[in-house]
Each structure stands twice: as structure tokens, then as C-alpha cells.
Design brief:
About 30% of the residues lie in helices and about 20% in strands. The chain is of the alpha/beta class. The protein is globular. Helix 8 packs across helix 9. A hairpin with a 2-residue loop joins strand 10 and strand 11. The two termini are about 30 Å apart. The chain has an eleven-stranded mixed sheet, sandwiched between helices. The protein has a two-stranded parallel sheet with strand order 12-13.
């Protein structure tokens, strides 16, 4: 995802399409061209509840998922949602651990680059736009698959990573934890033009508490915690989203959790740095910095076709995020 291409996609996608579509959860419609996938089935829902963001809901459903965790996976700009779920290894992990995977899909009618609109208040506010649609999908999946409501997680890449952070802010009572790969902090932008600026140069400059206040302002009135935990991943060779955004996002969530102490840092391998800020017995915030990774999801040794924004790396983000969530 080259910087110039991403700029053009985001610029074309500034035009928003909003509306309200109310429907009840219906029997899943099997997508013939996408099934069968080994170990489970990919289904599309014609109706899942309120859908003001006009998104499409897909779900990958292995066998024996009742009572299990639930993971929501948000693709990046220009990505095929299903291909990303496969390439990133989340389908394989869902099969092995028997949990359902909800895969929201952006529509070109909403955003020409098929980016989730993490930068627009009408799509990130609680009960509004795309955020409301993603939350509606999550609630529908919890009911249908009998998921454990204490173990609901959300993961995203790029625009999906920024939207994942926005969802944690707007729905801290729904998601226990999330992961943002090559994303941006909550409140970094409020328009398409600001989004392009912040992707190129992280900001604005403000105190950690001011960053945390963006999250608090997005949460429901009277919410006092516990706040969702967050895993942040960033390639230092990224020329699409400035790597400093990962540090701001980490700063934001550290302040939110009241974690002022230095990180428990550890070196992994090949220069990959993993920093952890614990809160009691569990990791509240963590940051993975990969020295040479471009704008992509780190797939470990997994072989992925080129041009799909998932690349081989010294560490596997899906495995690391699963450990952070407590899935594996």
C-alpha cells in the first residue's frame, strides 16, 4: 500500500454514505464461492440488526463454538476481507481453538478505497455509522454463537487498526481487549484531510492525559472501567502510517490505564522490540516494534501472495495477539 496510492484512496473515500437499515438476525446465508473453508464455514448475514454504516457482515464459524471467545477482524484499505482473514492466520487459529470470527466488510459506496472511516465522528461515535454497525454485528454474533460476553475482542490493520481503537473507546463495555496493527490513536483526526496529515506525521502534540481524554469522551456516560486492554503493532519501515502513531496510541492507553511506570522491555529477535506495561497480573498495554516491516500485517513465517499487505516477519502478530487476549 504505497503512500501515494493510500492518499488517493483516502481522498476519494472522504465522501460518506450513511443511512439506517433495521433488520432482525436471520438464518446465515452460506456464500458458495467462499465455502467450504477447512474446518468451518464462512457465512454472510442478510440482516444482523441496525446497520447505519451500511457494512457487510461475514462470519467464520468452526465447529463447537458455544461458550467460546469471539474475535472481530477489521481489514485495511483496499483489502479483501476474507483474504485478509485467511492470510493473517485468524481463520487457522479460529479452527484450532474453536471460536467464531466476525469479519465486517467495508463497501466501496461508503469509501472509494474501502477504508473504514476511523477519522469521522459520524462513523466512530457510539450508536453512529460504522461503529454502530460493527457493534451490532458483535452483539448478533454473541447471541447466535453463544459467545462468552467476557471474552469479546477486536483486531484491525491500518484503517481497520485505527477503527479497532475507536471501537474500544466507544464500546469499552463490549470489548475486553483489542489489537491495532499500523493504526492511529483515538482522536487523531476528525476529517479525511486531517487523517491524511496524521498518517504522514503523527500528532497533534498534547499531553498523555489529553490523549486519554479522547477515549474517555467517546465512552458511554458514567463509564468508569475497567478499560479494554490494547496490543499495538508497528513496522518501522512503514511509509504509509508514520510509526510515531504507534507510540502515541500506546501513550494514550497507558494514560487511560494509569500506567506511568517504565515498560518491562524485552528484545525478541532480529531487532524486534516488545514492550509491556502490566496492570496487576495481566498485560494492560503492549507495543511491538518491527524494524524493517513496511505497511503490512506481520505474518511470521507464513507464506502469503504479494500485494495483500500481509508480509513475513520475525514474529507472527496473530500468535502474539492471541496470547495477549488469553486465547492461546
Amino acid at each position: 500500500m504505497k503512500w501515494s496510492e493510500n492518499l488517493r484512496s483516502l481522498y476519494r473515500g472522504i465522501k460518506l454514505g450513511t443511512g439506517v437499515a433495521k433488520a432482525t438476525l436471520t438464518k446465515p446465508r452460506v456464500e458458495p464461492r467462499l465455502t467450504p473453508l477447512e474446518g468451518g464455514r464462512l457465512v454472510g448475514f442478510d440482516g444482523f440488526g441496525q446497520n447505519p454504516g451500511k457494512l457487510r457482515m461475514l462470519a467464520y464459524v468452526p465447529t463447537g463454538v458455544a461458550g467460546s471467545p469471539l474475535v472481530v477482524l477489521l481489514h485495511g484499505c483496499g483489502q479483501d476481507a476474507t483474504a485478509f482473514a485467511v492470510d493473517s492466520g485468524w481463520i487457522e487459529l479460529a479452527d484450532r481453538l474453536h471460536f467464531p470470527l466476525v469479519i465486517p466488510e467495508q463497501a466501496e459506496a461508503n469509501n472509494a478505497g474501502r477504508c473504514f472511516q476511523w477519522f469521522h465522528p459520524r462513523d466512530t461515535g457510539r450508536g453512529e455509522g460504522e461503529a454502530a454497525s460493527i457493534a451490532s454485528m458483535t452483539h448478533a454474533a454473541i447471541r447466535r454463537f453463544q459467545s462468552d460476553p467476557r471474552q469479546i475482542f477486536i483486531v484491525g490493520l491500518s484503517a481497520g487498526g485505527a477503527m479497532a481503537a475507536a471501537m474500544l473507546a466507544a464500546y469499552p463495555d463490549l470489548y475486553a481487549a483489542g489489537a491495532s496493527v499500523a493504526g492511529l490513536p483515538v482522536g487523531a483526526a476528525r476529517s479525511g484531510m486531517q487523517a491524511m496529515m496524521r498518517m504522514a506525521s503523527a500528532g497533534p502534540e498534547q499531553s498523555p492525559e489529553a490523549w486519554a481524554d479522547h477515549v474517555r469522551a467517546a465512552a458511554p456516560d458514567g463509564f468508569t472501567g475497567p478499560w479494554p486492554r490494547l496490543s499495538v503493532w508497528q513496522g518501522q519501515g512503514d511509509t504509509t502510517v508514520a510509526p510515531e502513531n504507534a507510540h502515541l496510541l500506546t501513550t494514550q492507553w497507558r494514560a487511560l490505564h494509569g500506567l506511568a511506570a517504565p515498560a518491562m522491555a524485552e528484545q525478541v529477535r532480529n531487532g524486534v522490540q516488545h514492550r509491556v506495561w502490566p496492570d496487576g497480573t495481566q498485560r494492560a498495554v503492549e507495543l511491538w516494534s518491527l524494524p524493517h516491516l513496511a505497511h503490512a500485517y506481520p505474518a511470521g513465517t507464513r507464506v502469503v501472495p504479494p500485494g495483500r499487505f500481509v508480509e513475513q516477519a520475525p514474529v507472527d502478530a496473530t500468535a502474539g495477539i492471541a496470547r495477549f487476549f488469553g486465547l492461546d
